[in-house]
Amino acid sequence: MKIKTTRFGELDVSESRIITFSEDILGFSGYRKYVILEHSKNSILKWLQSVENESLAFVLTDPLNTVPDYKVEIDKKDAETIKLSSLDDAVVLCIVSISKECKSVTANLLGPIIINPEKMLAKQVVLFNSPYSIKHNLMESFQKKCAGQNP
């Protein structure tokens, strides 16, 4: 299928790559179908592009790239919503916010996106009783990564 985007132009995307969210991403109601696009080869960043709104896209990263001991626990109801039998089978990504002029780069570790890649279903969950933040500073980790060092 063809989708129009403001950042990437018109894209030809296989319907099998479309991820359907069981609920809206927090603060962005009405859009539940997305596709993940690579930022560039070997990048730790990805794009979550809405199929339904050409100007809606989020920058994502695997939290393990910057927080090696990052752990997620989701309740049974959330897992059932996306037909996930085990968290080991999930893809966990976090939304990244980049301020103007790139002075601040943060990740929402408290509200990760959990994807069931087998069913192409996803949900953003909110972690309770968690040490994580919605504004985890990634600048230092990214600088190390760009310099070729492990974060």
Describe the structure in your own words.
With 151 residues, the chain is mainly beta. It has one domain (2-145): BH3618-like (Roll), CATH 2.30.290. Helices cover 9% and strands 32% of the residues. The protein contains two helices and eleven strands. Strands 3-4-5-6-7-9-10 form a seven-stranded mixed beta barrel. Strands 1-2 form a two-stranded antiparallel ribbon. A hairpin with a 3-residue loop joins β1 (2-5) and β2 (9-12). The N and C termini lie far apart (38 Å). The model has no long low-confidence stretch (mean pLDDT 91).
In short:
The protein is built from 2 helices and 11 strands, in the order ββββββαβββββα. With 151 residues, the protein is mainly β. The strands form 2 sheets. The chain has a 7-stranded mixed β-barrel.
CATH class categorisation = Mainly Beta
- The low-confidence parts are none
What is the element string, with H for helices and E for strands? Answer: EEEEEEHEEEEEH
β-sheet strand percentage: 25-35%
How are the SSEs placed, and which strands pair?
Layout: E1 2-5, E2 9-12, E3 19-21, E4 33-38, E5 45-50, E6 57-61, H1 76-81, E7 91-98, E8 105-107, E9 113-116, E10 121-124, E11 136-137, H2 139-146
Parallel strand pairs: 3-10
Antiparallel strand pairs: 1-2, 3-4, 4-5, 5-6, 6-7, 7-8, 7-9, 8-11, 9-10
What keyword list fits this structure?
single chain, 151 residues, mainly beta, BH3618-like, 7-stranded mixed beta barrel, two-stranded antiparallel sheet
